[in-house]
């Protein structure tokens, strides 16, 4: 899925390449990445065994590690 981000948002954060939204009330992570065409791409993770890729930092983490000790 491709997500369009408002151009004023880009102007406020011109060096932003990636941002991750982690839900605290359900297993849900949204990862937004600026792709090679300078468009924002959204990848959603909702399974506890999914692995989130932090592209700009070069590492991955499993949702079970993110949600370790979280009670829903």
**Helical coverage, percent range:** 10-25%
* Category from helices, strands and their pairing: alpha+beta
Strand content: 25-35%
Can you give the mean pLDDT?
Answer: 86
Number of helices, where a helix is a run of at least 4 consecutive DSSP H or I residues: 2
Widest β-sheet, arrangement of strands: 1-2-3
- What is the count of β-strands? 5
Largest sheet: 3 strands, antiparallel
Structural account:
Helix content is 14%, strand content 35%. The protein has two helices and five strands, in the order αβββββα. The strands form two sheets. The protein has a three-stranded antiparallel β-sheet with strand order 1-2-3, with no helix packed on it. A two-stranded antiparallel sheet has the order 4-5. A hairpin with a 5-residue loop joins strand 2 (29-34) and strand 3. The radius of gyration is 13 Å and the shape is elongated. The model has no long low-confidence stretch (mean pLDDT 86).
What is the fold's blueprint, element by element?
Elements: H1 7-12, E1 18-22, E2 29-34, E3 40-45, E4 51-54, E5 59-62, H2 63-66
Antiparallel strand pairs: 1-2, 2-3, 4-5
Summary, kept brief:
With 72 residues, the protein is α+β, with helices and mostly antiparallel strands. Helices cover 14% and strands 35% of the residues.
Observed structural traits:
3-stranded antiparallel β-sheet; elongated; single chain; two-stranded antiparallel ribbon; alpha+beta; 2 helices; 72 residues
